[in-house]
Amino acid sequence: MRRWFRWVAFLDVREVGTSIALVRLLVATCVLRTLGSVWWSGVYGAAWADSAHGGWRQHLDSDPLWRLLGGFDTTTRDGLAIAAVVSAALLALGVGGEIVARLIALVCLQSFMALGDLNGHAAGSYDSLITNGLWLLVLAGPSRTLSVECRRATGAWTSERTVMRWPRFLIVVQAVVMYGTTGWQKLSDHWVPGGDLGALWYIEQQPTWQLHDMRWMAPLYPLTQAATLLTWLWEVTSPVWLIAWLAEAEPTSVGGFAGWLRRLRARDVYLVLGVVFHSLVAVTMQIGPFSWASMALYPAFIHPREWARIKSGRVR
Question: What's the predicted TM-score (pTM) here?
C-alpha cells in the first residue's frame, strides 16, 4: 500500500508545462502537415470522397461523428477539414485557457479522426499515433506556457505556471508501448539476432518504400545489418527507456537498476538513438508523417527542470 501511495504522489506532482507545451506545438504541426499533404498532393477530392461523389471507393462512414452529422457529403467533409485546420492552428498557437485549450484539442482530435476514417487506403498507423497524442493533450491542458494564452495572461511567452505530471507520463508510456510492440512484431528471420538481419537492406531497395533512389546503398549490406540489429534491440528494450525516465524524474539519487541506468544516462541514449533512427527514415523512406509524429512526443521525455539547463548549455 505504501508503494501505491508513493506512485500516486509521484504522478500527482505539479511541474512547469514546458515539455507538454512543446509536445502541443509539434503534434499540432504534424496535424497541419498531414492535412496539407492531402491538399497539395492533389488527392483531397478523390481520397476523402465516396465513389458516389467522385471518390475512389465506397466509404462506410465508420466514425461516429459522421453518423452524428447525418452521414457523408462533400459539404460536411469540407467543414470538418476546415475545423481540423483551424483547430490545429489554434492548438499550435496555444489559444485558450484551462477549458478552451482542451476543447480546441478535442475538436482537432474528432475532426482529424473522422477525416482519417473516411478511407483506410489513405491512412496509416501514424494517424492513430497523432490522434492518441491529441487525446493526451486534451487531458493535459497544454497552453500554460509557450502560447498566446501565456502571453495574454502574463505578458510573456513563457511562464512558470504548473501542470499535472501524469499526462506527460502517459505520453511517455504511449511512446514506449508503441516501440516495444513494434519490435516484438518483427519476429522474422530478417530482423532478429541469428537471422540474416537483412530487413533494412531489403526495405531500402524496394521502390514502394523508397523516397529517393537508394541503389547506392546496395553494397553496404553489412552496415544495414548492424543498423537492423540496433533498431530491433532499441525497440524491444524500450521498457528500459521508461525505467530510465522514471529514474531521471527524481531530483535526488536513486539506487538499484534504475540508479545504474541513470548513471549511464540511458534515457538520453535512447532519446538520441530515436532521433537518429527517425531522421534517417524521414530522409530515405516514404512512410508518411510517422517519424515526425513519433518525435513530436519526445519533449515529454525531458523533465521540465532540465530545459533551463539545456538552454544554458549545461546538460547536467
Answer: 0.93
